[in-house]
Amino acid sequence: MSLAIYLNILDEVLRQFKYSQDELQRAYGFGNRLQSIADKVRDSLDESQILQTAVQELAIGLGVDSCDTGIYDLQHGTSTVAYEYVAGQVLPVQGLVVSMLDYPEVYSQLLQGQYVHGCWYPLDQKIHNVRRISGHFAALVHPIIDNQQVIGDLWLYRVGAEGFEPEEIWLVQQVATQCAIAIRQARLYQAAQAQVTELARLNRLKDDFLTTISHELRTPIATIATAVQMLELELQRIGVELAANPGLQFYLTVLQQESQQAIILIDNLLALTRIESETEPLVLTTIDPHIWVADVLEPFADYANSQKQQLELDIPTDLPPLTTDVADLERILTELLTNACKYTLAGGTITVSAALWNPSPPNSAPMLDLTICNPGISLSADECERIFDQFYRVPSSAPGKHQGIGLGLALVKKLTTRLGATIEAKSSADHLVFRLRLPLTASN
User: Fold this and answer.
1) Could you tell me if 315 and 403 lie in one domain?
2) 227 and 304 share a domain?
């Protein structure tokens, strides 16, 4: 074999090797371009930005004269050119609404999930030239499919007789898939945001309604409570002995108790509404826990005695000062002590104790540990968790014995969180223990 033949063979091998290298480099370039477009599309939850990015990156990356995306309205059989990127002398048509009936050959394929690719003369009636391109042009149209439904398409125009290479068609296919995924995520996000906005609006309406109703109810009920007190005084003034009229005494007592219970309920509703609105800052005051807790418990000592209960206090005198919102803390303790007295049987002992608690790192700041323990009730672990839920009432073997609609402990939980504290309930051996842990210095 002559040297010339060997050289020709070597030249052909080198040519094929160079062609393979070029193809590999071309494929690598398309892969990088796809990754770049996919990253930009996935980074957004804005549908308009997703589509605008896709058409711009495709137009620049493939060097076409225009690229646009249509959004389908299948009910009316139309496609709206939502976003476009135009180069050269191609006519912009963004916002144009196209009837699918005017493009039967194209949309029949697109609606079946198939792409359309071809070259046309400007006056070819098989496809309408909405871009008003004079001369030959190539078009590639690919559907955007989400959940087996075509929601839009990508149109690419190239002026001249040169069509689209298989690698370019592959790239457009992959970008259409990425657009479908990103659009689905964007629409789910927008739907979720709309739900959040609507829920916030409904919550504001609920709060406004509760506040208005509570104010409207509180005034007449407070007036009734005052009138009952004045009636009792007036009866005493005119010489009516209530002790000699047990029926009259009973009715007055019922009026007083029920009106007071209604006022407490309304106050709890108003307090919950105010806390949830998060508009009121804490009013911080520094107190001595030993003295302050004893003062709060003083009226409960008399009430416990009247119920034949014992109230024991175990508060060390050397506890550090506590800086907190005393109005909120007093309401917490009042509600917990009211519950303790309500559920403790005659002869039972309610214990209130306090100590300094040092948590493990990283939460190493010491806290004030307050516990209220009362006998007479046993709850499961699940009930101890749910006891702070709004409108949750502990199941009772004696229906109607314990009044309330389940707002008191829900309010306690809200106030505790507002103070930066924690509270938990535990039950064992027919005892219920509430443990309240407060930072020594609360902050807004």
Assistant:
1) yes
2) no
Return the H-helix or E-strand segment holding 385.
helix 381-386
Domain finish residue from 211, 244, 277 = 277
**Helix or strand run (H / E) with residue 263:** helix 246-277
Determine, yes or no, domain membership for 319: yes
Do 333 and 391 share a domain, yes or no?
yes
pLDDT at 99: 92
Nearest to 92 by CA among 114, 67, 58: 67
CA distances from 333 to 227, 405, 424 (A): 30, 19, 14
What pLDDT does 403 receive?
56
d(CA 322, CA 368): 8
* 437 phi and psi angles, rounded to 5 deg: -120, 120
Residue 337 shares a structural domain with residue 297: yes
DSSP letter (8 states) at residue 74: T
Give the model's pLDDT for residue 125: 43
C-alpha dist (Å) from residue 153 to 82, 99, 150, 247, 377: 10, 14, 8, 83, 67
> Is 100:107 a contact under the CB 8 Å cutoff?
yes
Distances in whole angstroms, Cα of residue 93 to Cα of each of 283, 337, 363: 62, 74, 62
The number of angstroms, rounded, from the C-alpha of 297 to the middle of its chain's C-alpha atoms is 40
* Domain housing 266: 199-277
What was the pLDDT predicted at 34? Answer: 60
User: For the chain, how many structural domains are there in total?
Assistant: 2
Q: Is residue 192 part of a domain?
A: no
> The pTM is what?
0.54
Neighbours of 403 (CB within 10 A): 12
Q: Report the pLDDT value the prediction gives residue 434, as an integer from 0 to 100.
A: 94
Instruction: Name the burial class of residue 307, with classes exposed (0-12), middle (13-18) and buried (19+) by CB atoms within 10 angstroms of its CB.
Output: middle
Across-strand partners of 150? 145
Segment-wise mean pLDDT, segments of 10 residues, the chain, 444 residues:
61 59 54 69 82 88 90 94 85 90 90 89 56 79 90 90 86 89 89 92 81 80 87 84 81 84 80 77 93 91 85 92 94 91 87 89 82 87 86 60 70 92 90 93 83
Query: Can you tell me whether residue 97 is helix, strand or coil?
Result: strand
